[in-house]
Amino acid sequence: MCGIVGYVGSNLAYPVLIDGLKKLEYRGYDSAGVALHTGNSIEVYKKEGKVSALEGSVYGKNIQATIGIGHTRWATHGEPSDRNAHPHSSNSGDIAMIHNGIIENYAQLKNELLQKGYTFKSDTDSEVLVNFIEDIKINNECSLEEAVRIALKRVVGAYVILLLDKDLPDTIIAARKGSPLVIGIGDNAHYLGSDASPMLAYTKEVVYINDYELAIVRPDELVLKNLGNERITPFVQKLDIELASIEKGGFDHFMLKEIFEQPQTIFDSLRGRMDAEQQSITLSGVDKIADKLLKANRVIIVACGTSWHAGLLAEYVIEELCRINVEVEYASEFRYRNPIITDQDVIIAISQSGETADTLVALENAKKQGATIFGLVNVVGSSIARIADAGAYTHAGPEIGVASTKAFTAQLAVLYLIALKVAQLKGTIEATLFNKLLADLAKVPEHVKEILEDQDAIIQEIARKYSDARDFLYLGRGYNFPIALEGALKLKEVSYIHAEGYPAAEMKHGPIALVDDQLPVVFVATKDSYHEKIISNIQEIKARKGKVIAVVSHGDEVAADLADDVMFVPQVHEIIAPILSVIPLQLLSYHIGVNRGLDVDKPRNLAKSVTVE
Ligand code: M6R
């Protein structure tokens, strides 16, 4: 979490930094700030709130600097405030630093510094680190680069740090462990960012910095070193993202744009990987670990949030089609308990960002115990993609809205392909079922388009009716149960309405006590093997005067007649149905959030990429 940017070159730095911070604001928006080296001094501007608040407070100032660093914060240590905003300056004012991550032993370092007479203006761990570095620089009479190297050997935690030094008017020092850092190579300029979006307008050539690397960045020079002071040759990669893909393109919000992009993004996830006519699936990542997968004791899926919901559906599908034992784990739990992992286990990590701290550390632990790691990731070159033994990108393109939509359906599309491919290799699927599922999968982009075109206006009306509700219940059975969870999460995130997802039958074991004539209950009730059961569950809610909103298959008059409000989706095989049933739920959440006047792209307290545990 937190977004960091940097620029060193021959143009004015401030506009580049502000533009970059706006692109990274999805990572946190509690405060924003910049530090600029004017040649003689370092000027720091920071403000609580979004980047626009910082811009307002700096408006009219003539900042002549061609080097600077900027930060957009998701608060960890210390409340959101001007005082706790980054950049933080050292006691002398000679060093300014921005930080993304958490310094776990900051209390101990702070005590040492307090005893030496250092004072602190903020409650942050970051201010401790910049002073710790300054203290080393003074005591060792060394360069900033050397001081950073020494300091980081004592630091416990995760960081990307960018520093400016009053004595170095053309240099940014950067270092990384556990949080992402990309450096773009421009024309006599370098751009730094938490991801590549801030530099897309200027360059397509980037270097992804690895853990324990330190970068010395000047307009015409990028020097990479490890913490042992040995030089490393930068590995320059070409980006294949277009600038348009990170702009709103005429939509009011990124979330809406991303929902409407899904016919294309799902198509992109499947493109080149399946051939319905030839009945074949090509996934080089699966081929690479095919022997492990076919012999696996079990598959463990590790993820968080929406990606965990994709994992839960994958459990149902892989167990059904491949007859492999699957466990789905919350990464944050998995990493701290003592799971039994062997070299016979295959871990599938699912992550949009590829940077989620809990998922990343869970994988590192599992890898040490010999498991094979398969990464299903959206962001190309991200940390999870790089530590995996094999993997597949979801190809959803940059997802800017904090609430995940198109990344989720892209995850489902690729997980279906993985399950089908493994089932085919294992011989656990009949050819007729394989062909039916592949044919239905091929039609998903078209069906999603149809839902968006036919249902959006209807869903806007439904949203209007329920925008003032205090709570929502989401119910689904079988393959649609993970979609009930995802629908509830989406609503919570963008509307701040309390919502819970449950297996429809489990409702009788507690949540039914919530039902009254004020409670909207969303049923994900497409036609499947459990259909009659879920119809009974709808009846049970109706008998208690609950308001039923149902996602139903076209032509299902029974469910449609029972429900107060209906959202239709095309009928496909029940295994494929969830990738369609989630679309109306995304729209419902979006419209309710907008009706409530909320910033659906940047919901309060959230950040897109959770790089702290
Ligand atoms: O980048 P990841 O997929 O690893 O992120 C996991 C969760 O943080 C993420 O899905 C989160 O729950 C979203 N806000 C959901 O909309």
UniProtKB/TrEMBL annotation:
EC assignment: the record states 2.6.1.16
Give the record's keywords alphabetically. Aminotransferase, Cytoplasm, Glutamine amidotransferase, Repeat, Transferase
Q: Which Gene3D superfamilies match?
A: Glucose-6-phosphate isomerase like protein, domain 1 (3.40.50.10490), Glutamine Phosphoribosylpyrophosphate, subunit 1, domain 1 (3.60.20.10)
Localization terms from the record: Cytoplasm
Primary localization class, coarse:
cytoplasm
Residues of the SIS domain: 289-428, 462-603
- Active-site positions on this chain: C2, K608
| Repeat keyword on record | yes
Q: Which residues form the Glutamine amidotransferase type-2 domain?
A: 2-220
Gene Ontology MF terms in the entry: glutamine-fructose-6-phosphate transaminase (isomerizing) activity
Q: Which InterPro entries match?
A: GATase_2_dom, GFAT, GFAT_N, GlmS/AgaS_SIS, GlmS/FrlB_SIS, Ntn_hydrolases_N, SIS_dom, SIS_dom_sf
Decide whether keyword Transferase is in the record: yes
Q: Per its database record, what is this protein's job?
A: Catalyzes the first step in hexosamine metabolism, converting fructose-6P into glucosamine-6P using glutamine as a nitrogen source.
What HAMAP family does the record point to?
GlmS
User: How does this chain assemble?
Assistant: Homodimer.
Q: Write the protein's name.
A: Glutamine--fructose-6-phosphate aminotransferase [isomerizing]
Q: What organism is listed for this UniProt entry?
A: Sphingobacterium arenae
Q: Which gene encodes it?
A: glmS
